[in-house]
Amino acid sequence: MRNLLRFIIQHHFLILFLIIESFSLFLLFNANPYHRVRFYSSSHKVSGRISNKMENIKDYFSLYNENQKLSEENARLYNRLKSSYRLVAADTIFEGDSLSQRKFMYLTARVINNTVNKQYNYITLDRGSAGGIEPEMAVISSDGIVGIVKTVTPNYAAVLSLLNRDFIISAKIKKNGYFGPLSWNGNSTEYATLVDIPHHVQVNEGDTIVTSGFGGVFPEGFMIGTIDHFRLKGGNYYEITVNLSSDFRKLSYVQVIRNYARQEIDSIEYSVNQ
Amino acid sequence: MIRELGKYLFLFIVLIAAQLLVFNNIDFSGYINPYVYVLFVLLLPFKTPKLVILVSSFMLGLSIDLFMGTPGVHSSATVLMAFSRPGIMAMYSPREGYQTGTYPRLEQFGIEWFIKYTVTLVLLHHFALFYLEVFTFHHFFSTFLRALLSTILSSLLIIFSQFFIFRR
Lengths: 274, 168
Hints:
The structure holds two protein chains of two kinds.
Chain A: H1 2-10, H2 12-29, H3 33-59, H4 63-80, E1 104-114, E2 120-125, E3 138-140, E4 145-152, E5 157-164, E6 168-173, E7 179-184, E8 191-198, E9 208-211, E10 223-233, E11 237-244, E12 253-259, H5 262-273
Antiparallel strand pairs in A: 1-2, 1-12, 2-5, 3-4, 3-12, 4-5, 6-7, 6-9, 7-8, 8-11, 9-10, 10-11
Chain B: H1 2-21, H2 39-43, H3 50-68, H4 73-91, H5 106-134, H6 140-164
Helix pairs in contact in B: 1-3, 3-4, 4-5, 5-6
């Protein structure tokens, strides 16, 4: 007993180091995607307010670019208005009448915290469950897709960024519709990797990659990026490197998309899997 | 003693704030991120009990982890660094040893000693940090490069800070 005590006293530094280090590593190893998000959003109750203030200041520096983007988007939306069309035939039916039902709803939110330099990046939005945001909603910017909402508090939402090793989405080549999973490779903020495209498919550099709409989170046909380069992997499938169209370093305003059909899609897919 | 404690507590808070508000916003092409908060571990006095070094380093790493949302990454790297501090100090100790009443600072031991001391510990911290964060040896060389370049930038910032802040 005394020897044991002497041993502990003699090596107390090493022993305490091992205890603290194993606790830290325990935190690290136990961090599955769910814990990571919880850790992130709980820490945000503390720092959300500070981030909000910081972002308020930073916003002024990007006002010019933001205005430019908003006015471009306004113009695009004006073009889709009913008043921008001329009635060519008396029996033409327009979108938005009683024959169509709303499928997607767009909410705007501001990015108050965003990282790009980690392997598991998250984005914080200044709008939460009180503003109608729920987990598993899609997030886009005017340039392309951004991520998926993971957790919400009443006033803030934590978004799993596309630049996160846990992020995976079904994407397709716009011109021929072949689809596969797209994920980030953890290297550069500008590129993601699309795999499982069979080798007989005609692929060219510069082809557009869009969301496939499978999974019910993202609507179909949203811009992800363009093909930068590709190579055959294992002889049967292409591994395609996609140049992302969103600039994650400059995100400031985003749209969050609610899919009204999602619950129904989920429940039918669940019943098939049973 | 109490005054000293207050001073280091102040340094602790200022470094966390500086890391979160300033240095986290610096990154060149996603490769180089300086982590300057480790300056706290470097500057603790010689006479600090080893246990206090370990525990305060853990608190420092954990605070950074909490704000950056990276459970365990910064705390384990910082604790590893704190653990190696006495060994590294012994390695670079001047011929007559460290006198009582001196502090591990640039103005007391000269630039050469401070550079050696800083670079070794920062290198250790950054390599632990970057590999723990990626948690794979898959892109070994790209991580290696990130850790190395970040070490250079962090060390430079730390050494320069000594010329401005702790001049008394």
